[in-house]
Design goal:
Layout (H helix, E strand, L loop, with lengths): L3 E2 L7 E4 L8 E4 L2 E4 L9 E3 L8 E4 L2 E6 L8 E2 L4 E2 L25 E6 L5 E2 L3 E6 L5 H10 L10 E4 L10 H16 L3 E8 L7 H8 L7 E5 L6 H16 L5 E4 L4 E6 L10 H14 L3 E4 L9 H5 L5 H20 L10 H6 L4 H8 L8 E5 L9 E5 L5 H10 L4 E6 L11 E5 L2 H6 L6 E2 L9 H16 L5 H4 L15
Helix pairs in contact: 1-4, 2-3, 5-12
Length: 494
């Protein structure tokens, strides 16, 4: 295993890949650096003198300014580095030198072909409440309907949420769009929409958002309209199970896969191992005609120009500028600072500023051109790399990826988390220690990139694993029975 890594030749800091001790002498880029203090794993140390006010450079880009003079071998972190981020900015489109990935050969998975032509990777019965008032009924139905699981019916899942009534403006609009997207998602072989009857986002209102639907696949029940809602709902679920049970897996080209990409609980290795591996995976899938979605806009701040310059058209560049600046305006309109990030866990793991975090986070996008920019709750329309408007909150952003059409969410982490989303959520560790310590959470260990594997080897392994998941292999959170959904409150639009 490597001891340290200097990510870019222009960096004036390196990252410890193991805990380093004061007095150690490290050979970095043809020079020796003697450490003047202990450096925790994932944290940075100076390779040369950095004057107060000078740039601290990692990934080849500025991650902040030195608050004070920093000497070679000194720990570089929040105590001596400050963010450079400020307010809303103007940007120039500089697409020169960026080309899309070259096409590669076909690969396949075993999925479900829906009546409308879309492909799904799960054949589940989903119970979607229109309002939080019927959450308990939905959960009771999930338990009672377990008897229908078997054969080609893989699970029955109730997605509880607290919204659907007493909401205003964008909040109510977000709820309606998310529920409609969930109802249309091809991972559900059958859907019961469970309403109360007096809520703002009631079934008749939602019908306008759902649009055309298969009456065999989607059933509706308004609880206030029937004497025994459990009895009536179970009849409908039995019909849905019979319909869904008629589907079976078949060979489908991987060009039809849509994969969401998100990170959380990042550490100093996330931008060195897990996120670059996911980026290389994204390029692989895009080269095969598939689609990836990158979100958590606030964690693009400080690295946004890297995405803007990869936009395939000037129109997409302008939409990306709006994506960034609208989220900055969202923060300032709520009297919040734009750079109030990274989190305490991020800092403990070695991330010092939002630029440091963002430059690591955006590694998940790989190198392909940006082909689409999506509003919150907007379904994917074009293949290739898409950017999606959603916050950094793990549950909200992962749900946003699912409702935009992601079959699977890839979630990189250096700290670990057990949460799930409406679709299979693959946990990818940035370090082997986490993979061993939380084996019940972690599905894929990208920490091997600094041990015995290359980024390219791990990207191919991850693609193979994703194809297995798409073909029915359960991820750890599915095995635990976890299925979460969270809707963005006070959203923004492009």
């Amino acid at each position: 295993m490597q001891d340290i890594v200097k990510i870019n030749q222009n960096d004036n800091v390196a990252v410890a890949l193991r805990p380093l001790s004061k007095g150690e002498v490290l050979h970095v880029a043809d020079a020796d650096v003697a450490l003047i203090e202990d450096i925790p794993q994932g944290h940075k140390f100076a390779l040369k003198a950095i004057k107060a006010g000078d740039e601290v450079v990692k990934y080849g880009f500025r991650i902040g300014f030195a608050k004070e003079e920093i000497t070679p071998g000194q720990w570089v972190h929040v105590h001596n580095v400050k963010t450079t981020l400020g307010e809303v900015l103007t940007y120039d489109y500089k697409p020169e030198g960026h080309e899309d990935v070259e096409p590669t050969g076909h690969t396949y998975f075993e999925g479900y072909r829906r009546a409308g032509g879309k492909a799904g990777i799960r054949n589940e019965i989903w119970i979607i409440p229109t309002v939080g008032c019927v959450n308990s009924i939905a959960k009771a139905l999930e338990t009672a309907a377990r008897k229908f699981v078997g054969g080609n019916v893989e699970d029955v899942i109730a997605f509880q949420h607290p919204y659907g009534c007493s909401q205003m403006g964008d909040d109510q609009e977000n709820t309606r769009r998310v529920l409609a997207d969930m109802i249309r998602h091809p991972n559900a072989g059958g859907v019961l929409v469970l309403g109360l009857g007096c809520e703002n986002s009631n079934i008749p209102v939602l019908m306008d958002y759902i649009g055309e639907y298969d009456e065999q696949r989607v059933k509706f029940l308004q609880c206030q309209d029937v004497e025994d809602e459990m009895e009536e709902a179970m009849k409908l679920i039995e019909e849905l199970a019979a319909y869904a049970g008629a589907f079976s897996r078949e060979k489908i080209d991987a060009s039809e896969l849509i994969i969401g990409m998100k990170c959380g609980g990042s550490d100093g290795l996330s931008g060195i191992t897990a996120n670059p591996v996911v980026g290389a995976f994204s390029d692989l899938l895009v080269s095969k005609g598939g689609t990836t979605i990158l979100t958590e806009v606030p964690e693009m701040f400080g690295a946004e120009t890297l995405l803007m310059d990869r936009c395939a058209t000037p129109e997409l560049f302008e939409k990306t500028v709006d994506l960034i600046n609208n989220f900055k305006n969202y923060f300032t309109s709520h009297n919040q600072t734009i750079y109030e990030n990274p989190s305490p866990g991020n800092k403990k793991g070695g991330i010092s500023t939002l630029e440091d975090k963002s430059l690591g986070c955006t590694q998940k996008s790989g190198s392909s051109l940006v082909k689409g920019v999506l509003e919150y709750g907007e379904p994917v329309k074009v293949k290739g790399l898409n950017l999606l408007s959603a916050p950094g909150n793990d549950l909200v952003a992962a749900t946003a990826l699912a409702v935009s059409g992601a079959h699977i969410v890839l979630f990189t982490t250096g700290r670990g988390t057990p949460f799930a989303s409406p679709v299979p959520t693959v946990k990818i560790s940035s370090n082997s220690k986490l993979a061993g310590h939380k084996n019940n959470w972690i599905d894929f260990n990208a920490g091997r990139m600094v041990e015995d594997k290359t980024k390219e080897e791990l990207a191919q392994e991850l693609l193979d694993y994703v194809l297995e998941v798409a073909s029915g292999r359960k991820v750890k959170s599915e095995e635990a029975g976890f299925h979460d959904m969270a809707i963005f409150k006070q959203g923004v639009t492009l």
